[in-house]
Design brief:
The protein is mainly beta and 178 residues long. The protein contains three helices and 13 strands. Strand 2 and strand 3 form a beta hairpin.
């Protein structure tokens, strides 16, 4: 079951869902989701293939590897132009905390998807107990260059209540990391 707008407001009031910054009168709550915005920092690994580096994600600190292989860009002043076939990593402006009573998924906005832009490749699930900014793997499969701006609505958070609270919250590698 997906939470409705009224249920989302109840979760915010109860503290089972914490989103910072957040204003309930901002229009970000949709009938069955919450719109989240793009934060000011983008990691850009570039578009040229890197020869001689073979990546085994099972034996790799993914966050450190990406930082070492990417240029960090601040888009708070100037937008980033995402060219066709370009891939970057961003994060939501909002810090999201879920209680052990809630799970969530993140999906792209349809207005971006119709232009060929995806914001979350294959890992949309957010476990109960998660507390962090949501990492976004943004890619352009379309033929147009797309302007990415700080604070633009870029994804939707879809919340799902658990039948019972989870025994333990998320304790993975990305809890509290930046």
């Amino acid at each position: 079951m997906i939470l409705s707008d009224l249920q989302i407001l109840e979760m915010l009031d109860s503290g089972d869902l914490v989103i910072t910054p957040f204003s309930s009168d901002s229009g970000s709550i949709q009938p069955a989701s919450i719109d989240l915005r793009l934060g000011p920092t983008i990691s850009d690994p570039g578009t040229n293939p890197v020869e001689g580096i073979y990546v085994d994600p099972n034996k790799l600190d993914v966050s450190s590897f990406i930082r070492s292989q990417s240029e960090t860009r601040d888009i708070s002043g100037e937008p980033l132009f995402l060219h066709p076939r370009q891939f970057v990593i961003g994060a939501t402006l909002e810090h999201v905390t879920l209680s052990t009573r809630l799970g969530a998924r993140v999906d792209g906005k349809s207005r971006l998807a119709r232009l060929g832009v995806g914001v979350h490749i294959t890992a949309p699930k957010i476990d109960p107990g998660f507390s962090n900014y949501i990492t976004l793997e943004i890619f352009n499969l379309g033929p147009w260059t797309i302007m990415l701006q700080n604070e633009m609505e870029v994804c939707s958070l879809i919340l799902e209540p658990l039948g019972r609270p989870a025994l333990r919250g998320y304790e993975g590698a990305f809890q509290g990391s930046s």
